[in-house]
Amino acid sequence: MFVKYRIINLFTVLILVSSCCIKESVEIEVERYELSEKELELIPYSDSQQISFIHSEGYVFDFNVEGNIVEQGRYYLSDHYSYCNDVEYVSYEYKRVEIKSNYPNLNIEFSVGGDENIYDYQDFLQININGYYYAYLPYDGSINLICNEEEGAICHDSIIINGKKYNSVLEKPFKVFPGTELPVILRPKYILYNKQQGLIQIKMSNDETYSINN
Amino acid sequence: MRRILSIINYKLLIAVFMLLNICCYDGGTFYLSEESKAYMIDTTITSFEMVDSNGMTEGFYIPQDPFETQHHYFNDYGNGIIEESFNVQYNSTLNYYIFDFLLRAIDDSTFLNIEWNQKDRFDYNLRTGEIEYGIAPKLSFHDSLTVRGVEYKDIIEIDYYSRIEDTDIDTPIKNLYVRRKRLN
């Protein structure tokens, strides 16, 4: 009886011990991507900057720069809630800037670099309006915007907007994802952007425009 | 004798109580008034454009999810009361505007309810001509009005100018609504 009792006790202890980890799990960075200075400069806005824009009918309004952040994100390659096993991750640096106007009620976000939801490091500048209309501006190893005409891009060596000349401007159509098309005629159609100024113009589907006003 | 009287009184009390219930709480269905049906939006027009006073165009559309496509319905509250309602919501394509239009039968009245961006709303009793809830705009009724060169008839003008301090910054100061058609 005594022996049986001791065997049960020993068995219980063994179970308890086996459920403990020999060592606590650690998070291991296996790859790291950082943005270069030139990539960071792809979004040329500074904190609290105000940018004047004008509608094609003459209405003038301001965008205010808000939410100018550069951060490191993590993409976990395995279950990072596991207690006993080491967890590997890839870290990405990303930059995200928002510009907002009160009226028209526009919230435009610019981002470069991968974040924790993307496995492959993305080499494009992403722009979205109000979280719905997206444009992707790819860039090459020299951090020049790529003009891929097969995606509907138009390359302007120079363009004059409101009497001012802008060089190396990329005109890119906005993407609408399948299944999310709105049953409307009016929508943002093209975005014009360059590295020096940032957003230069938004062209609407009815040919109205919102342009930088210098 | 006293016992018989008390039984009679007791039964009388029950009868009165039942009568009261029949007269004041009999459930029933409340219908939109005939006059209010002229305000129903033509929901076959699923999108349209509007131009503001600065010349900027905005598009509005009816969301196509299943909940929003049923516009004319009867609300059954489970207590025997059923109310007829007509509801349309429009979202804007560029800005963050949401326009909600509701006609609702409550008791012997029909209410016109207009709401912007789920913030500013008013309830107008079509029977009494009174605004009974919300930040009250100035309501004007026009036989006809010309807007951007087009003449419209049977216009309701909703003007928040005198209440501008009380309304949200994104609520339009003035709306013009055409009966039998849509917001203009």
| Integer average pLDDT of chain A | 85
End-to-end Cα distance of chain A, whole Å, is 94 Å
Give the count of helical stretches of chain B. 3
> Which assembly state applies to the chains in this document?
heterodimer
How many discrete structural domains of chain A? 1
User: What is the number of beta strands of chain B?
Assistant: 12
Number of domain units of chain B: 1
Helix-strand topology string of chain B:
HEHEEHEEEEEEEEE
Structural class of chain A: mainly beta
Low-confidence stretches of chain A: none
Strand content of chain B: over 45%
Main beta sheet of chain B, described?
A: 9 strands, mixed
Shape of chain A: elongated
The outline of chain B comes out as globular
Q: In percent, how much strand structure appears in the residues of chain A? A: over 45%
For the termini of chain B, the CA-CA separation is 76 Å
Radius of gyration of chain B: 22 Å
Sheet bearing the most strands of chain A, described? 12 strands, mixed
Class from secondary-structure proportions of chain B: alpha+beta
Give the chain pair forming the largest contact, with residue counts: A-B, 20 and 20 residues
Helices of chain A, by number, come to: 2
Could you explain how this protein is built, in words?
The complex is a heterodimer of chains A (214) and B (184). Chain A has 214 residues and is mainly beta. Chain A has one domain (25-212). Helices cover 10% and strands 47% of the residues of chain A. Chain A has helices at 2-18, 37-40; strands spanning 27-33, 50-55, 60-76, 87-101, 106-112, 124-129, 133-138, 154-161, 164-173, 188-194, 198-204, 209-212. In chain A, strands 1, 2, 3, 4, 5, 6, 7, 8, 9, 10, 11 and 12 form a 12-stranded mixed β-sheet that branches. The longest helix of chain A has 17 residues, at 2-18. The N and C termini of chain A lie far apart (94 Å). Chain B has one domain (27-178). Residues 1-25 of chain B have low confidence and may be disordered. Helix content of chain B is 17%, strand content 45%. Chain B has helices at 2-24, 34-37, 66-69; strands at residues 28-30, 47-51, 57-61, 72-76, 81-92, 98-106, 109-116, 120-125, 130-134, 138-147, 150-159, 174-178. With 184 residues, chain B is an alpha+beta fold. In chain B, a hairpin with a 4-residue loop joins strand 4 and strand 5 (81-92). In chain B, the strands form 2 sheets. In chain B, strands 1, 2, 3, 4, 5, 6, 7, 8 and 9 form a 9-stranded mixed β-sheet that branches. In chain B, strands 10-11-12 form a 3-stranded antiparallel β-sheet, with no helix packed on it. Chains A and B meet through loops of A and strand 3 of B.
